[in-house]
């Protein structure tokens, strides 16, 4: 019997738990799911004979280490700041570790120790980062193998609401961590375009009306991710003049979010007292309100938009133009906004989310310039079995299976960019209808 330990039973864990449980009888696995919320674990695991729920405080070292000592493999879906506790324990007790989170500076310091211990710590093994790395590297390696010279690489990914559930003026619903949505892009973005490094400040990140066409969906807007340059050397594309990774949204979302940034409502630095403050007072902190005109007109004047603008419809939808009081005590603007979007942009039980990922690669081969498009669309089942949970969780589950079957020889701290990882994982993802379509021009 092999033991798998999963830390975290939140939104992204649903499909991973389903995958592990369905494979457990055949693979002879036992799965322990650890989270601070026992009811949440049980809602995801049911009464399976192959699962043990463990309600623990992740910061409780003794409880955490006991679970890690008793397992064969650890998967962490904890908030990123908590991974380091798990990583250090896995190193101490000689356990392989998989997570969907970015490699952070703290774990980077352990790189040599991980390799010396003969362990595999696979980070960025989810959706974005994860499936993006695997699908991109498969294309890059294939082009290079055939003698192609790559001149431009652009990769886009977004967690969206599917067209049939797209029924609010924001064209968006929350299918993952709402705090990450609120703080997205707050460091600005850096990428390379035609040989020049471009930097975009947070204030202007969402107001660039750049769009890309996706087959069967039409136009989606995009904004560049925080630091695309970080991945140039990992992808071995150091000489490529254009390299950008970006996030996809419906165009209306970007326009509305740009407004929230301009109003200062995404700021997470200073706290304000909200107990006797109305939502309108909160939303109009930066404006000079004229009491003789309506809330709508005041905001419209400040933003320089028409009183009939769809942006005002978006603000009204979030309840930002009414006189209700907030009553959340001392909070940052970002925390108040998170509270608002968690209720106003929540997915209803029957709602479906949608993941869209696309790569554009320009290359020259035998004197011919070619642009390759590769795209994937995945739609969720409902507001629990989401496309987000599926695309984040399944790559982790598949790699866990490959490791426990001793089909992976890779050791050290890695992201999934080697054929040994991406070939079998992408192949099995196709069984779950996560597949890429390719076209050339």
From TrEMBL:
One of its GO terms (molecular function) is saccharopine dehydrogenase activity. Residues 126-431 form the Saccharopine dehydrogenase-like C-terminal domain. It comes from the Bacteria. Pfam families: Sacchrp_dh_C, Sacchrp_dh_NADP. GO terms for biological process: lysine biosynthetic process via aminoadipic acid. GO terms for cellular component: cytoplasm. It comes from Chitinophaga agri. This is Saccharopine dehydrogenase. The keyword Oxidoreductase applies. Residues 4-121 form the Saccharopine dehydrogenase NADP binding domain. The keyword Oxidoreductase applies. Keywords: Oxidoreductase.
């Amino acid at each position: 019997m092999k033991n798998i330990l999963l830390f975290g039973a939140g939104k992204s864990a649903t499909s991973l738990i389903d995958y592990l449980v369905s494979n457990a009888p055949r693979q002879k696995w036992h799965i322990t799911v650890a989270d601070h919320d026992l009811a949440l674990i049980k809602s995801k695991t049911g009464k399976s004979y192959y699962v043990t729920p463990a309600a623990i405080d992740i910061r409780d070292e003794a409880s955490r280490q006991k679970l890690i000592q008793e397992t064969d493999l650890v998967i962490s879906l904890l908030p990123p700041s908590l991974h380091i506790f798990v990583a250090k324990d896995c190193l101490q007790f000689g356990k392989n570790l998989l997570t969907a989170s970015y490699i952070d500076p703290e774990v980077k310091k352990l790189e040599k120790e991980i390799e010396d211990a003969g362990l595999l710590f696979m980070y960025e093994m989810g959706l974005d980062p994860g499936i993006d790395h695997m699908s991109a590297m498969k294309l890059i390696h294939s082009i290079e193998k055939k003698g192609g010279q790559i001149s431009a690489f652009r990769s886009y990914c977004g967690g969206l609401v599917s067209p049939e559930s797209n029924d609010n003026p924001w064209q968006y619903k929350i299918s993952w961590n709402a705090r990450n949505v609120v703080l997205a892009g707050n460091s600005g973005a850096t990428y390379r375009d035609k040989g020049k490094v471009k930097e975009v400040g947070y204030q202007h990140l969402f107001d660039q009306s750049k769009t890309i066409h996706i087959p069967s969906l039409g136009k989606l807007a995009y904004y560049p991710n925080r630091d695309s340059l970080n991945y140039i050397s990992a992808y071995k594309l150091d000489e490529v003049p254009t390299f950008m990774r970006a996030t996809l949204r419906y165009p209306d979302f970007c326009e509305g979010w740009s407004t929230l940034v301009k109003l200062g409502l995404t700021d997470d630095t200073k706290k304000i007292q909200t107990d006797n403050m109305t939502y309108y007072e909160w939303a109009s902190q930066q404006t000079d309100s004229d009491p003789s005109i309506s809330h709508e007109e005041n905001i419209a004047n400040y933003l320089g938009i028409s009183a009939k603008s769809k942006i005002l419809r978006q603000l009204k939808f979030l309840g930002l133009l009414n006189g209700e009081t907030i009553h959340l005590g001392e909070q940052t603007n970002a925390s108040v906004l998170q509270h608002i979007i968690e209720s106003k942009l929540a997915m209803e039980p029957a709602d479906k989310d949608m993941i869209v990922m696309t790569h554009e690669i320009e290359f020259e081969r035998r004197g011919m310039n070619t642009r390759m498009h590769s795209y994937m669309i995945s739609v969720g089942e409902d507001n629990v079995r989401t496309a987000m949970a599926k695309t984040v969780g399944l790559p982790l589950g598949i790699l866990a299976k490959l490791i426990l079957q001793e089909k992976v020889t890779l050791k050290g701290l890695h992201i999934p960019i080697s054929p040994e990882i991406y070939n079998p994982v992408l192949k099995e993802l196709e069984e779950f209808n996560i597949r890429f379509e390719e076209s050339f021009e």
